[in-house]
Specification:
This protein is of the alpha/beta class. It contains 31 helices and 15 strands.
Amino acid sequence: MKELYINTIAQHLAIRPWQVENCVTLFEEGSTIPFISRYRKERTGGLDDVEVAQIRHWADVFAEMEKRKASILSTIAEQGKLTEQLQKEIENCVVSSQLEDLYLPFRPRRRTRATAAKEAGLEPLADKMYAMSVSDPFKEAGKFLSDQVATVEEALAGARDILAERFSETPSVRETLRGIFRTRRIVTKATRAASSSEEARKYRSYFDYSEPLSKIASHRLLAMLRAQDEGFLSLKIDADPLKCGNKLYYDFCHGKKYPSPALGDQIRQAIDDAFDRLLNPSITGEILREAKEKADIESVGVFGENLRQLLLAPPLGPKRVMAVDPGFRNGCKIACLDEAGNLLHHEIIFPHPPQNEKVKSIAAVSRMVDAYHVEAIAIGNGTASRETEAFIKRIPLPPACKVFVVSEDGASIYSASEVAREEFPTEDVTVRGAVSIGRRLMDPLAELVKIDPKSLGVGQYQYDVDQNLLREKLDNTVEHCVNTVGVNLNTASSYLLRYVSGIGPALAGNIVAFRGENGPFTSRKQLLQVPRLGAKAFEQCAGFLRIPGAENPLDNSAVHPESYHIVDKMAADAGVPVSELVGNAALCRSIDPARYVEGDFGLPTVRDILQELAKPGRDPREAAQEFAFSEDIHEMDDLVAGMELPGIVTNITAFGAFVDIGIHENGLIHASKMGVRGLADPSKVLKLHQHVTVRVLNVDLERKRISLALVPATK
């Protein structure tokens, strides 16, 4: 990568150029973001996965820009207009808008008014007016009358068209207007279509609205743009045409001989025309796209953080689970799973109206709990969830058997997916959905990676943001979570393995097939026997895969095989076998990491090794906890302002957090009601799936909206 781009990335991310250069080199060598951030700290200066991902993003951006530059230079060269100075300006560009400004005069275009004027021979007149080499434009225009130009006014009008287009294509003019427009307000008005549409009512806050572009929140801008796309709003930026024209005219005249009144009037007309007809629409579109890009980044960031918290939700672990997909008329679908999440049994019970088979259902649940040694019950949080939870809790269960309510978001998407059909080819969608609910309790990460993250019900305006940016963020987030936790090589599905550093879908399938043919892996080295898994893939993935019970205990840790010799030396110096060093926190604390620094293995790597040896294979996730909604609240009609209720955070946005309080509609804690002074950042106050206490502020039955405030936890 060119030094120009490396320095730009370093400046943008406030890091050193050598850190960027080393990361780019590692990417070119085939290294992944998790591998670089975890095992190449010496080469990156300790950059975390977020910073490494940002470098990867900008490296891709500039790679595309380099291709664009090559195309632009080729086009201009074919026109015979590529000067040495222009080529230098293009090659030194690092801002997309500036690059396109340089290209604009040379871009192939449709026939314009300026084109027609040039064909009529009026460009020399426009050149003289632009250079202010004439004082009487009317007299000069008379020299350009022809069969195509009948009058002086036609000649001047054509010259103004040429000047207007020239002004609109001048980089300094466009940059000046961008600076002005960025300081202005966005103004929205309702269209005629909005007045007769029920669908438009949700946008009524924006029917007559304005706000400074610099202050507008991402969710509001995305809502406005969606309403505009749906035909319910018109958007504009309130830049004053007179003031903009004055500024452009002043800049044009500045440092030059001031034009005569007659010429000045012609130039001013051309500038005003350029602004109204060409610049205002163009710059407005640019600035709105720029604002949307910022909103996209913020919204994608919120989505990524929510997804991270969702994937790293506390797992119950390998226990026998009864999963219940609740329902009324169609009954409650039950799936009993073993410790590995395999389906043992399924059936349907009807404890609710209209069947009301409560006695029969109690007997069925009790029988299944006993027969399959159920240790926990997972109930989906959809229709009939509260009623099913109450029913289950009335059944005498073993003392250790706990009841959990689990989010169903995306379960129906999974149950009808190709992934589900491959896993359960003979079962219908209801059984697959119940199994997914149970597995989510056991290991949310392993189950949720099978579902498109956009179907998981977290984030804001995920279908309105740049889908490429969203996909990049989601992939990075899933990859980060999977590699942070680590993956059991002998139990992981191919859908989980594909997110392990350096593996991907094809190798994940090969690993599962190899495991099926040869039995469980006994060492990480066996991975090299998997078809098409070579040395590079092994380097990238080995440290993130775990083998419980392996002969070498390091194979069940985050210590990379390339560092095993360091651990061997530590153990030898301590006079113990490696197996006694692993997990011995006190002994690990007594080791001086500086003694084991060598070659490419610096202090950061050695310290990471000692930290991992002290707690090998530690799952960073917390333990799953039981939760109970208020037994008195089942419908919105039950809510009264001032009530304090338990709830679970289900989604976090830039403007607040949504909380499930046990009814069909989630309530909203606005950012201003987070219990801290000022407008709080919801992501810094709350976490997804956090158990909270909320106070009911207002209940709008007509709009089905519940306003809540966060009640601070008492110590």
